[in-house]
């Protein structure tokens, strides 16, 4: 997901049937998606596999999209908006190994890729918004070029390459404050080992911009990070993940039964390296729900 610059918002959108038939909340989700999808191919590597998203696409989760939409938005509101936008032909929404893939169905209609590289001096493009899909590069000094080369070497090591411009800014500040490339490299390698050991779901991997802005290379990943969770919380995390996947599948396919949703979820978990079955998922959830019901009485 791009982090700088601007996107186009044509006035003719007001006359589009999609815009006219959407609620205010659905319009917020629609515009947020337009500001968040990529304008060029983005790649990252996870557990030896290369993943790519194309222009007009983004990989996210319901909760991440909710946060991008801002105060007052709910997961239920995001889910409903995605269903409506899908039915209206604005976007598609599919589950993948790396998270939720959202694709703007007619990206060129909203953002002509041949015209995205406009000068900042053009009068109709002076205002900038977050998550622009173009770099507004100024002339770099030799020292900036050298820093960029050093940063790119580190960027290649990071597993989730989103927010490169913000990451580079954070990197330059860190170097100015005394951090070294060796420290950052060691921290990235430790984080990758931690992710592999914990079999972390790709959608929960820190984006590159988060890792660099939070100086996460300074965290102790050898024992599970700086804030390891108690052992007893892990079953709850597992339940939450299962519930999240099942709810998502059932919301995308209203006619799908709980059993069918569990089977779909089991396949997704298995594809991500965590072998399980639909029966195991349902038994685990039933056990959790009985325990939760007993605690509430």
Structure description:
By secondary structure, the chain is mainly alpha-helical. It has 3 domains: 11-116, Orthogonal Bundle (Arc Repressor Mutant, subunit A); 142-218, no CATH class; 231-296. It is 49% helix and 9% strand. The protein contains 12 helices and 5 strands. It has a 3-stranded antiparallel β-sheet. A hairpin with a 2-residue loop joins β4 and β5 (99-104). α2 (24-36) packs across α3 (62-69) and α3 (62-69) packs across α4. The radius of gyration is 21 Å and the shape is globular.
Features:
single chain; 297 residues; mainly alpha; Arc Repressor Mutant, subunit A; 3 domains; two-stranded antiparallel sheet; 12 helices; 49% helix; 9% strand
Largest sheet: 3 strands, antiparallel
Which strand-content bin applies to the residues? 5-15%
Assigned CATH architecture of the largest domain: Orthogonal Bundle
DSSP summary, beta strand count = 5
What is the fold-level CATH name, i.e. the topology of the largest domain? Arc Repressor Mutant, subunit A
End-to-end Cα distance, whole Å, is 45 Å
* SSE order, one letter for each helix or strand: HHEEEHHEEHHHHHHHH
Q: How many distinct domains?
A: 3
CATH class of the largest domain: Mainly Alpha
